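Please fill in the sequence for the structure shown.

STRUCTURE ENCODING:
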């Protein structure tokens, strides 16, 4: 019963969290998304203004300057393009009534003189449109020979972007609300099924405990058997290490799988240093040419130890159908000192 109550409490908390999704959208998601997109639009406007200011041609020809401003409005869908003097007076503009207006640009002189642009958001009424729209005003300096000669002013209409954003966020909010409602209904259904599930779980846990007890008994038996196998393996390895003859187990690529202590002492390497190596390379590191080693029994002279070795081969296949070979290498002290046959 306590488990059921805990599960129901958890489901209630989950339902409350589901209902918080629309609140999260209104308080955090929408303002953050709007701020990021607005900041991106402002940065793009500044970048465009700086780019256009670099290529803007300042001349005494008023017609040419007005034509450049009109081309900017047409090519980049601007509301207005103006050219101000460093003092802030509008010298040229695509909107005739703007010519002659003065704005104090003194606070911006340092930034404009260094080539930085300035932008701001504001709202205004545009001819042919109902209500106020969101605009971005960008001031970009025209610096020639290190001197601020004019300021290019561009007005962008971002109202369409904001409207599209508001529609998208509204659709997202509606979707989140629908998801929250569906989630809430599913939680209620889960709560009604919880009691049956807990009863079934209790029965399953009982069966599981019984199975676990049986597995523990099997584990103890397997652990005992494993210890016996390890003990037998250790005893067999110690027995092989006591043999003075060198015993190797190699695969069909002549790589050493197992060996006893006699081989390790003979070649002067560690046990891990010989595993996986070609037994001929390990045993005859001096580069002695080995011949007639495909027979069951061979004798060959080892120059470094100045001894004759008798080598016997016993091949078999394991349970994985791999061909393995047991190699027995015996030192022949009675032939010590004899020279090798070429």
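FILLED IN BY: designer on duty
SEQUENCE:
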């Amino acid at each position: 019963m306590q488990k059921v109550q805990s599960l129901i409490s958890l489901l209630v908390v989950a339902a409350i969290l589901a209902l918080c999704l629309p609140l999260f959208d209104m308080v955090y998601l929408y303002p953050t998304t709007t701020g990021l997109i607005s900041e991106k639009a402002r940065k793009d406007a500044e970048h465009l203004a700086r780019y256009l200011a670099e290529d803007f041609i300042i001349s005494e020809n008023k017609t040419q300057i007005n034509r450049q401003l009109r081309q900017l409005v047409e090519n980049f869908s601007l509301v207005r393009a103006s050219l101000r003097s460093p003092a802030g007076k509008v010298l040229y503009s695509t909107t005739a009534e703007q010519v002659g207006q003065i704005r104090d640009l003194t606070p911006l002189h340092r930034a404009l003189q260094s080539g930085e642009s300035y932008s701001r958001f504001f709202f205004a009424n545009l001819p042919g449109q109902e209500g106020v729209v969101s605009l971005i005003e960008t001031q970009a300096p025209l610096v020639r020979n290190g001197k601020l000669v004019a300021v290019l002013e561009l007005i962008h209409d971002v109202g369409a972007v904001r409207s599209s954003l508001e529609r998208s966020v509204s659709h997202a909010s509606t979707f989140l609300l629908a998801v929250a409602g569906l989630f809430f209904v599913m939680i209620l259904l889960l709560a009604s099924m919880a009691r049956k599930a807990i009863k079934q779980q209790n029965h399953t846990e009982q069966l599981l405990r019984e199975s676990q007890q049986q597995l523990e008994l099997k584990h103890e038996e397997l652990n005992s058997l494993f210890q016996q196998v390890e003990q037998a393996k250790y005893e067999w390895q110690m027995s092989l290490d006591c043999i003075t003859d060198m015993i190797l187990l190699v695969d069909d690529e002549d790589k050493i799988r197992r060996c006893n202590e006699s081989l390790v002492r003979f070649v002067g390497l560690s046990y891990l240093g010989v595993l996986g190596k070609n037994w001929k390379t390990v045993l005859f590191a001096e580069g002695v040419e080995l011949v007639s080693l495909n027979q069951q029994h061979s004798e060959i002279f080892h120059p470094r130890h100045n001894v004759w070795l008798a080598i016997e081969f016993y091949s078999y296949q394991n349970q994985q159908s791999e061909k393995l070979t047991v190699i027995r290498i015996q030192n022949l002290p009675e032939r010590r000192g004899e020279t090798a046959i070429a």
